[in-house]
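[agent] plan:
  1. take the single chain provided in the ticket
  2. run structure prediction with default settings
  3. attach structure tokens to the ticket
  4. add a short note for the reviewer (M.T.)
[agent] executing step 1
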Amino acid sequence: MRAIQELQAEPRSGTGKGAAFRVRREGKVPAILYGGGEAEQVTLKLSQRELERHFGTGTFLTTLFMLEVEGKKTRVIPREVQLDPVSDRPVHVDFMRLPKGAVVTLAIPVRFKGNENSPGLKRGGVLNIVRHEVEMRCPAENIPEYIEGDLSDLDIHDSLHISAFKLPEGVKPIITRDFTVASIVAPTSVIEEQRAAAAAAAAAAAAPVVEEAAAAAGAPAAPGAAPAPGAAPAPGAAAPAAGAAKAPEKK
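[agent] step 2 finished; step 3 output follows
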């Protein structure tokens, strides 16, 4: 289960771009707290430095926080982070309350083990990761940091499906079918050799057909050869002009 992190926040007054700009000038980041069966939406501000420290872990959106506001603690999870288009620094955060028994949908990272034992990888195969993250429905009390797949028995052309992963209690994928998460594929050199061999075989199989077609159509006459008696003139050959005078006979 992912550990709960502590995070401090303060109430803020005002909404809109002007109010948010003033908060950022203080070195803080505007935020909103909502959900959890409470209709009230609370506007907050957080320390820019503290927020960036958590955001820099790369797992911010799947991390539970105990958010403390004026001495009151609430379990929350970040749902959306707006970034500055130039600096990529967080400029606004949405937090959702997570009361006891809540279930939340998250993208859980995928990791792999057993690489050194995989027959396919030992033979030069390549690990093809189809899904780096998997959308899961997770109880708030049992959110995994990641799910881990074992490659130990996978050979070339074998696949690892979601059913092969051991999931924490109550955690279920959004997709109900047994989808592929990763596979072992042949190295590029082998694939190219197979394609070249297939192309050569296809060319060899087509050669006799081409020769038979040429024989059936008749081979072209050699240059300068006289046409056979009764044969039609060769295409492009000039026919004798009608009524043309014969050359005088020498005596």
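[agent] step 4 note for reviewer: Residues 197 and 203 are 10 Å apart (CA to CA).
[agent] ticket updated
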